[in-house]
C-alpha cells in the first residue's frame, strides 16, 4: 500500500513543480513581451535604420558619410539614444572612440573636461614633456615648477615659479601620476615665444623647487 501512495505523492509533487516553472516562465515571457511592445511602440516597427560606424573612429574625429552609414537594426536591441541618421550628426566630433559595426549613440559626442582658468596678466600654453622630464609623470595642476631647456651644448633656466594649469595625465579626479605627454603652463606673455622655440629645438625639464628655497625667495 505504501508504494502506490509514494508514487502518487511523487506525481503530485512533479505536477506542482511543473506548474511553478510554467508560471515563472509565463511571467518572464510577459515581462519580455511588455518590454518588446514598448520598444516597438517607440520605434514603430521590427527594424529601423540607424547610424552605424563603418570603421573604428577615434575620439576627436569627425563623424560623416566616410566613416558611418545607415543600416537596418533590430529595434529590440537598440540603445535608447541611438542616432537615426548620419545627417543628424555629420561634422560633429566624437568625445569617445566608437568601433566598426557599433551603433552610434548621442552620448558618444559628449565631452568631459574642465574649463581652464587663465590667471590675470598671464597666458597659458602647453609644452611637450615626457615622464622622465616631469618628475616621473607626477606633475599636476596647482604645482609650481621651474622650466629648464637642455640641448647638446648647454642647459638653461627659462622660467621660475611657473604655475601648472593642466597636464595630460590628469584623470576625472584631476590627480596626476600617470603617463604624461604635455603640460599646460601659465606664463608671462613675453616668455611664450622663447618657450615655444625651446620646446621645438631642445628638451624641456620641469623641476619642483624645495620648500627651503621657496621660503628664502619669499623672504627676499
TrEMBL record:
InterPro entries: Pilus_assmbl_Flp-typ_CpaB, RcpC_dom, SAF
SMART domains: SAF (SM00858)
All copies of domain SAF, residue ranges: 48-110
CDD domains: SAF_CpaB_FlgA_like
Matching NCBIfam families: pilus_cpaB (TIGR03177)
Protein name according to UniProt: Flp pilus assembly protein CpaB
Source species: Raoultibacter massiliensis
Amino acid at each position: 500500500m505504501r508504494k502506490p501512495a509514494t508514487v502518487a505523492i511523487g506525481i503530485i509533487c512533479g505536477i506542482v513543480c511543473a506548474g511553478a516553472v510554467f508560471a515563472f516562465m509565463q511571467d518572464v515571457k510577459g515581462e519580455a513581451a511588455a518590454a518588446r511592445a514598448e520598444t516597438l511602440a517607440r520605434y514603430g516597427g521590427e527594424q529601423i535604420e540607424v547610424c552605424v560606424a563603418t570603421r573604428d573612429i577615434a575620439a576627436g574625429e569627425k563623424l560623416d558619410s566616410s566613416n558611418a552609414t545607415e543600416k537596418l537594426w533590430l529595434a529590440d536591441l537598440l540603445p535608447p539614444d541611438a542616432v537615426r541618421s548620419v545627417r543628424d550628426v555629420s561634422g560633429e566630433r566624437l568625445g569617445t572612440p566608437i568601433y566598426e559595426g557599433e551603433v552610434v549613440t548621442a552620448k558618444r559626442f559628449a565631452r568631459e573636461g574642465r574649463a581652464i582658468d587663465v590667471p590675470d596678466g598671464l597666458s597659458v600654453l602647453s609644452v611637450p614633456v615626457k615622464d622622465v622630464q616631469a618628475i616621473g609623470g607626477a606633475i599636476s595642476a596647482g604645482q609650481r615648477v621651474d622650466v629648464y631647456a637642455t640641448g647638446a651644448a648647454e642647459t638653461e633656466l627659462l622660467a621660475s615659479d611657473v604655475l601648472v594649469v593642466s597636464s595630460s595625465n590628469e584623470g576625472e579626479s584631476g590627480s596626476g601620476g600617470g603617463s604624461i605627454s604635455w603640460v599646460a603652463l601659465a606664463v608671462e606673455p613675453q616668455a611664450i615665444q622663447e618657450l615655444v622655440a625651446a620646446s621645438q629645438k631642445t628638451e624641456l625639464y620641469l623641476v619642483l623647487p624645495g620648500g627651503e628655497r621657496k621660503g628664502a625667495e619669499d623672504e627676499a
